[in-house]
Amino acid sequence: MPGWSRRIQMKLSTKKWIFVFLVTCMGLSIVIQSAILSDEARTLYKGTPDLNKDVISYLRTFNSSTSRFNSSNTAANSSVSTEEGDNSSFTGTESSVVIRKDRNLHEYQIADWEKAITCSNTGRKTMAEDLLCWKRPTFLSDYKNPCWNSSEGLRCLPYFHIIGVCKTGTTDLFLRMTQHPQILANKGILNKETWFWAWKRYKHEIFHKGRLKQAMTLEDFLDCFNSETIKMYTIKTDQYKDFHPMVTGHGDPMDFWDQASWKMIPQNDPNLDEPVYTTPHLIKHVNPGVKLILLLRDPIERLFSNYLHGAFGRNSKQFTLHVLASIEKLGQCSKKRSTPISASLYSIHLKEWLKVFPRKQIFVMRTEDYSKDIAGSLLKIFKFLEL
């Protein structure tokens, strides 16, 4: 056999083994990640049935098993404090499915800021859709998730929204939450992120230059949520013969802090230094009952992780220099950022959200507490979500 032929065969053989090696590594990575991810979840959801079976039987099993689990975990057994949301309005049924009487939001009180919204055909036009002028539909009362019937069929908004913050563990939290049989993931990135509110609806040039043909619309956002699956599963309750208990959500951790495109909201005056309306106003107008989850991490640790993830620099020395420069130019951070420092200014952003949403509608947890007691933290979140 000619020498060149043998060399080709050797190269092909080498490539074959490299391919086998990479596939094996990927497989091991998935197995290890799955084991890490579901360690506490297996304890919590042992015996989870296929959702094609009767969901209600599992919900009853879950409720009975929580008392056993809580007996070894005082924190998980305690009621969620006012710092994590007010649960005083919970109601229940014999079927263990929590139904809020105000879930349909027929009696939703229009806030003063909503009354002041200008909706006119002669209003300022921008690339972003005018969501403050979107006419909110009446949500179906026999659905736990906010859904309604439209000319295109059943449409659904997310029941919950992990609003932040980047590099605090939101991906891990979302993946664990979607192991609950009542929670559906979405069709977005990692089955978690839609990038709608802060980025894609503005065709955000920083991250999507040349990749987005047009700005994402609310209809595009709704396409991310599987309304047909929500519709598919029904149970019988005291109030409804066919109640739909499934809920869906998403986790976009940039939504909490990134208001860089506020000038593109039609009701804001681009000549002013500060916005009148921000992302919380838009979300509240479109989905007033949405449950918000906020995960906070030590701000310096979070910033350094975000710094490396965003390739702003490569080591702690560069990080220190860039942070000092950012602090010096903090007043211009929306124009030019040398680090993602603004995401760590928690109190400033939280005040913006609390101007719009009541405190009981926002579940706040520290990453450090979540890491110490993942299962107990999940139980608190599920209670906040009324699952």
TrEMBL record:
Any Gene Ontology biological process: hexose biosynthetic process
One protein family per Pfam: Sulfotransfer_1
GO molecular function, one term: N-acetylgalactosamine 4-sulfate 6-O-sulfotransferase activity
Residues covered by the Sulfotransferase domain: 162-386
Domain of life: Eukaryota
Region (Disordered) residue spans: 73-92
Signal sequence bounds: none
Comp. bias (Low complexity): 73-82
InterPro entries: CS_Sulfotransferase (IPR052654), P-loop_NTPase (IPR027417), Sulfotransferase_dom (IPR000863)
Transmembrane feature ranges: none
Protein name: Sulfotransferase domain-containing protein
Organism: Potamilus streckersoni
Taxonomic lineage from the root: Eukaryota, Metazoa, Spiralia, Lophotrochozoa, Mollusca
